[in-house]
Amino acid sequence: MFRSSLVALLLAGLSAHAWAAAPAASAAIATGLIAHRAVYDLELKDASDRSGIASMYGRMVYEFDGSYCQGFTTNFRFVTQIDTGDSVRVSDQQTKTFENLKDRKFTFDTKSFTDDQLDKEVNGAAENQANGVKVDLKQPASRELQLGESRFPTEHMLDVIQNAKEGKRFFEARVFDGSDDGDKSLVTTTIVGKQETPAAEEADAGNAGAFSKTAFWPVTIAYFNENAKSDSLPVYRMSFKLYENGITRDLTMDYGDFVLTGKLAKLELLDHKAEVCK
Q1: Residues of 19-33 as b/e, b for ≥16 C-beta within 10 angstroms?
Q2: pLDDT surpasses 70 at 227
Q3: Residues 157 and 101 sit within 8 Å (Cβ to Cβ)
Q4: Which of 69, 89, 116, 126 could bond 277 through an S-S bridge, CB–CB 3.0 to 4.6 Å?
Q5: What is the H or E stretch that residue 39 is in?
Q6: pLDDT at 120 > cutoff 60
Q7: Whole-prediction pTM
Q8: So what's the pLDDT on residue 59?
Q9: Which of 249, 210, 270 is nearest to 41 (CA)?
Q10: Cα distance between residue 174 and residue 10, in whole Å
Q11: Which residues does UniProt assign to the signal peptide (predicted)?
């Protein structure tokens, strides 16, 4: 349901070829990412009659750790209580990913539960090769796939930050994050606003701790099916405020039929020892 592009966050300006040509610059940007655990309170902002949702709220926990040398691990949990008017159910999505930026490899494992019952598990591994992304999918069915060249979530986050720092306000990318059934990439368009300083009335700015007064970029990423027509609506759209270190807050997640907001409730910085790549 929720994409890992916070992460996940997904090339004109810095293409995959440019990444391969400038590993030192990429490594430098990656070392600026901070290991952290962020907790977000979720609320329903809007829902159409077609959604069948009367009310919805929940909590999201996002944990990011690692380094350019060791690789980056993301643990993510997204729990919501959904009231349809006739019944109430609890949805629980648990995702763990590992991304090796140097070798451009990515592993993913997502379990989705409804009322504590496992609905679906999706897991596998992907690698960016010369002719595109090779996916070795284990669940929900064992198979190998060949997809077009794509960015992985942390790569895409770094692309967003790099473009923001260079003042490039719009760019596109194909992104693979292992979501849904783990068998496709999505085309993304990213819009980056001018850097701003948090306003006093922003409710969750104070929960950013040491970064409560640090400048951020407003970012919106829209995700489209790969073969969608040029005038098609996105399958998902996410807006958030992004700090240079990879921390995000003030989320808006638009699924078309309903919209959720996510306010930063707690931010914890994690201890991580720096290292020199061998």
Answers
A1: beeeeeebbebbeeb
A2: yes
A3: no
A4: 69
A5: strand 36-47
A6: yes
A7: 0.86
A8: 97
A9: 249
A10: 8
A11: 1-20
